[in-house]
Amino acid sequence: MNSEPRSRDRRRRDTEHRLTHDIDVWVASASADGVPHLVPLSFDWDGEALLVATPTDSPTGRNMAATRATRLGLGHTRDVSMIEGEVEVLEIDALPQERGDRFAARTGFDPRALATPYRWFRITPRRVQAWREENELPDRALLRDGRWLV
């Protein structure tokens, strides 16, 4: 399928729609010695950053805490938004109650109620790319250095 490419402005709106309405995202991280790890995690978007939670001692938790970086895949392979982000690590009790409640209501998952130690990871996009087909690859960059290009 090779339909007309969407404008960059349309792709930004589509990406923002996914951030607002989707619940899960693929989270890629790597250990200090370069071992990759990929998992799906639930998230909440507050208009500036994605909030995810994962066990403190999981590969993803350890990797993001050590490197403070991640790459996210939002959507399907033929309609994807790739987000590179800076990671802020927050202890599970460091998040305001209402923010944790919002995450739990949106995702159906409340890590604060579990016996396993979890952390919050707040991911601020630094780079966003979005495309469906090959014809959208040349203009796939939508955000660079934390600033929207469109």
Write the layout of secondary structure elements.
Blueprint: H1 8-21, E1 24-30, E2 36-42, E3 44-45, E4 50-55, H2 59-67, E5 69-76, E6 79-91, H3 97-107, E7 118-131, E8 141-144, E9 147-148
Antiparallel strand pairs: 1-2, 1-5, 3-4, 4-7, 5-6, 6-7, 7-8, 8-9
Q: Can you tell me about this structure?
A:
This protein is of the alpha+beta class and 150 residues long. The protein is 23% helix and 42% strand. It has three helices and nine strands; from the N terminus they run H-E-E-E-E-H-E-E-H-E-E-E. The chain has helices at 8-21, 59-67, 97-107; strands at 24-30, 36-42, 44-45, 50-55, 69-76, 79-91, 118-131, 141-144, 147-148. The longest helix has 14 residues, at 8-21.
CATH architecture grouping:
Roll
Identify the overall geometry: globular
What characterizes the major β-sheet?
Answer: 9 strands, antiparallel
Query: What proportion of the residues form beta strands (DSSP E)?
Result: 35-45%
Count of strand segments: 9
Task: Give a concise summary.
The protein is an alpha+beta fold. The chain is built from 3 helices and 9 strands; from the N terminus they run αββββαββαβββ.
Features:
3 helices; alpha+beta
